[in-house]
Amino acid sequence: MTRVRRQNDRAFDRTVNAFLIAVLLATLTPLVYVVSVSLTPLGQTTSLLPRAVSFNAYEELLRQPALIRALGNSVFLTLSGVLISMILTVCTAYPLSRPDLPGRKFLTGVILFTFLFSAGLIPLYLVIRDLHLLNTYWALLLHGAVSVYNLLVMKNFFQNLPESLEEAAKIDGASDLQVLWHIVLPLSKPILLTIGLFYAVTQWNSFFEPVLYLSDARMMPLPVVLRDILTGLNSAEYIESAATTTAPPDGLKMAAVVLTTIPMLLVYPWIQRYFTSGTLSGGVKG
Amino acid sequence: MTHLTRTTARTLALVTISALLGAHAQKATDLSVALYAANPEAPAPTARWDTGEVIRARTGVNLKFTMLPTGADGDNKLGSLAAANDLPDLFEIRNRNLFYQLIRQGQVAPVSSLLPQMPQRTKVRYGNAMRNGLVNENGQMYGLQEPATLSRQYGIMVRQDWLEKLNLKTPTTLDEFLNVARAFTERDPDGNGRKDTFGYCGVIDFDTAGILPGLGLGNHFQWVYGAYGVPGTWNYRAGAAFAANVRNPNYRKATEYVRRLVEAKVMDPDWATVKRSDLRNRWQQGKCGLFFESVGGLIAGFKNFEANNPKGDLRFVPVPKGPSGSRSMGTFANAGTLLVVSKKAMDAEKGPAIAKFLEWANSGEGYYQLAFGKKGADYTMVGGIPTVTTTNVNGRLTNTQLRFLALNGQAAELKGRYGTLKFSDGRSVNVYNLLMDTRRNNNWIDRSGDLVVPAAPNQADIDRYVSESLVQFVLGQRPLNDGNWKSFTDGLNGLNFAGYEKNAYAALKAGGFVK
């Protein structure tokens, strides 16, 4: 009986593994193709694996001063955006997670209301304008600095932490801030990294907000500048930069995709081990 | 001593007042200008932008330039700015529906008062009553409608080296076209021993600069409808004869011809789903014998094409004739950039500054600075033709981000922009001549009036219905027979197509485009 079950388990495992490998290949193939096209030299037909390798497309793109500046803008916006968002989210989520906060339900309701009923584009624009934040990075950093979804996930995570730890710290004379800094935050690495990643991805991919709130093209982040470059390459008119390039147009596009994706790809492995526990534990109400 | 002091004091006061008055007189007018970037792939102007400095020195305008993103994002941005009463002083609109919406909302100002303040520009660009009719509303002129500076630059290109290799003649009729396309597909014109070439490469593409979009299969197939006398959306006949071309029996015949191309397998099997960039990739890789392309696309891709096809030779072919002798590559509007002045700017009395700036951009130094960049650095004059000399492409493109305010489409300008392509083996192609060829030989039909036709409330549904139905017919997913065609045209009634036609006729008649 046990041997039969073991064989069944093995067969099941093999099936699952085969399925996962198929999914992996299906997912990986387009990514490999993107990299392959980006490395294909001028005058070569594209294929899943490049027959010859050329880095001309990357050289061309990295030679574009606009792209380098945009990359710097995006890095700055992402880092500072995550910092601001995390400070505000933690400082809101922690008090809301404490049962003894007066008016906790009312405050949570008010915050939830903004999640359910968005003000819309124009009122938001008017607020940004009246605060004189147009054409400044503050418009991008403060707009949506706190995501209600992320806030609620973090609040639930804090609620699940054992109350006894906090009580013990309080008995030792710790203030609320000290409890937060020395007890709660060190125990909350998974949720902090997970929510930080959510904020980072949102800020990194931000496209329409910069288009709307910024008028100085030198301040634009990477997605906007990349779109401009790609629009130019696909234009019907005479594209002088395309005419003088040493890389095929599709190679340039795919190289742009790779350059945009790399920073986020580099971040994932570092926090992968926290990711699952962060999302799951925050999503369960204790 | 006292007398001297008084005199000195008076003198000093006079000097101070004069200086203040002088400073006031020389104070630059801030002007916010938003245009769709002429060169989106190039960097935005920097703080010490050469062109900006020259504009300030010559016109007293302190230019604050914003590059609008192309497509719906640009429209959304302008829409949001309008809702916040925050439109730029002078800006470009590409979406006509948004233009009429802003007029109704009172966000844009009539511009007739500016015309006498810029006499040369008005004479060259705004003297055509029909074109000005495109921006009139309630008897007022609400926009500065520039003439088209670059239209009809598309055509059907052929691999001349393949024609010669297979001993074929340039096709002049639809039947000959199909025969040549079939030979390009089946007779291994590239000699690689594989059947990997296509007779005709075209995709469903409505966004081709200089050609009116129209209903149906897009502009890469308008020449087929032109061969049956039904290119574009409207027939422009008067009275009861006015209707959309889709109702014409010849429209079905043209669709049947595209079906024949598909049945003969002379087109790329995924033509209905791929994009223009894929098409460009394919002809550059030497996969296409005949294909739809612009002179700009040729310039942008010729280097990659040559690397793949060192002996390749590309020419435009004249648009093929249909059974009754009709021929047309498509329809176009003789209208280019549409400039609009916000009411806010007019109320702030910025009209004279706008007119001065635009007049400066029209000719002489201003024209060359905006259209070609810095003289001596970006270009030089060779035999009266502005010729690009710099190798700093990005710098020049940045300097000419405002070139749509200056370009006029005249011969010297086009010769400067569209020079000669040189192949490694010594051959050369004069692109200006190619442009003139495709303009002259393809019987393009002026349908500028299409721009005043109001979009139907369900325009997207109409566009999608017609386009998807035609794709189904030509792909054979829906047999192209009497019953199905009737069902297709009857389906238009459910979309209130008759109402759309009625409004189109009224607008075209009011604009003087139909009698």
TrEMBL record, chain A:
Classification via Gene3D superfamilies: MetI-like (1.10.3720.10)
Residues in the signal sequence: none
Subcellular location: Cell membrane
GO biological process, one term: transmembrane transport
Residue ranges constituting the ABC transmembrane type-1 domain according to the UniProt record: 71-271
Membrane topology note: Multi-pass membrane protein
Record field: transmembrane: 16-39, 75-94, 106-128, 140-158, 179-201, 254-271
InterPro entries: MetI-like, MetI-like_sf
GO cellular component, one term: plasma membrane
Keyword field: Cell membrane, Membrane, Transmembrane, Transmembrane helix, Transport
Family assignment from sequence similarity: Belongs to the binding-protein-dependent transport system permease family.
Protein name: ABC transporter permease
Organism listed in the record: Deinococcus indicus
TrEMBL record, chain B:
Protein keywords: Signal
Signal peptide: 1-28
InterPro entries hit by this protein: Bact_solute-bd_prot1
Gene3D superfamilies, alphabetized: Periplasmic binding protein-like II
Name of this chain's protein: ABC transporter substrate-binding protein
Organism in which the protein naturally occurs: Deinococcus indicus
